[in-house]
Amino acid sequence: MRRSSNTNYFSQIFVIAKNAFREAVRDRILYNLVVFVLLLTGAAIFLGELTAGQEVRTIINLGLNAILLFGAFIAIFVGVGLVSKEIEKRTVYAIFAKPVTRPQFLIGKYLGLCLTLLVNTAVMGIGVTLALLYVGGGDRLASVWAAVFFVFLELCVLTAVAITFSSFSTPALSALFTFFIFVIGHFSSSLREFAAALGSAGAKAVFGTIYYVMPNLSLYGFRTQAAYGLLPDAAAVAAITGYTIVYIAILLSIANFIFSRRNFK
Amino acid sequence: MEYIVEIQDLSKDYETGFWKKKNVRALDGLSLSVEPGQIFGFLGGNGAGKTTTIKILMGLLFPTSGTARILGRDIADVSMHREIGYCPENPYFYDYLTASELMNYFGEIFGLDSRRRKERSAELLTKVGLAEKDWNKQLRKYSKGMLQRVGLAQSLINDPKIVFLDEPMSGLDPMGRREIRELIAELRSSGTTVFMSTHILSDVEALCERVAILRRGKLAATGRLEDLLASSEQQAFEISVSGISAVALSSFAASSGAELSEKPTGISLQVDSESEIDAALKAVRASGGKLLSVQPIRQSLEELFVEKTGTA
Q: Is the CB of residue A96 less than 8 Å away from at least one CB of chain B?
């Protein structure tokens, strides 16, 4: 009996994403949550000395920055291995002999890690929420979740950067490059100011180009505002989300362009 | 006849060196076709280009030049993969999955519904001889032979029309090889074409109707196994006798050019043509020897392989 299949393009991507998520879970990636909870609990205990307002702000700052750093660590180190590990371990051989195209595989793996980061970020967000409720900072929750959303967007960009580098470079170098982008991306606006302040037109052009090519990660920095209970306006959220989607789409197109031409020796 | 695999003038260069200056030609103008319903043996020594060819067919490598079609469709057409299967050499799968989960995952990729995936997985894992108690063990705990069996099972999940097996017997013990050999024969009876690369010649002799022999990326020979063995067969006959010593036939051997050798059972006389048999028998009778047998000598596949690949 030969069955004709009715799967379509997107359900195959979903199957691959689901498996990538399972891989992350079985590789015990989510164990970092335990460390996070310990960190937060420890902080809540030792911060008892501070005044109520300071305590809330400190928990928000510490919690949100930890969510970003833990997530960045996963995005970089798991991200660079998403595809390269499969090539190195030759697990791609059986996959590409199935009716799966290279873009489907790349996007599926990418979405799988984004899903992992979503779960990771959400659980950490819940941790911060509980800590805040405990110290009586329940009025800042909306701001905190807005900031958590921005952190998640930033991690999605970072994962796309990692997967793009790893499509043509070794995992170690890719991790290093992605880390540089992570750092430089946060000083993106300084780059523009620096470019404007420079005298020579050549230098202006160079730094101006870097500014436009680099992801503007300072856009996602809503953590300090969240500590003061501020909320982003809807237009800004929409614009930043749009920027994120476009930036990721461009990166994945580049990664796919390179990946689709690779020989698996 | 419509061919199921058609390879035309396929070449592959690997670039080596830091600045990618040097090209190493792994495959050189390979042309070959496979008829449906057969077990096709793809032979050659290490580094002859067997795996390179199969990887090009599977879309894992891009050819430097030439074309190939499977089921009448260009190899770049990924939708054709719905109807083919592939088991890589020394297969390696996600080691965090169990055999059942891996089969389920690949079944999902083919869009099989959940009931069908379960059925198919159990059916195939049984067929390749994996004990049911191992189905739910993570693959990282599997031995090489067990992975090879999982590799075969997954290559059949979609009930393919043709399956490409790269060294399917490697890592298996003699019992395992026998089981897999039976499985491959069974595939053919159910109408599946099998394209298998191997250098285990006894498997080829037991299974393959047609073979292609590769040598340094070039086709050294292709055709029906029988024809290949017959065409390069030197007409020779072995006459076995007993009851006399080699000395008694030495003068005949010297005059006719026949080869004389002592065997545990007596004496063996090798002559090059049918016409020389009579003369030899006369000489045997004259010296009082007893005839045991007269047999034509066929070239073995091993000799053919050595002759065509130039390697021992």
A: yes
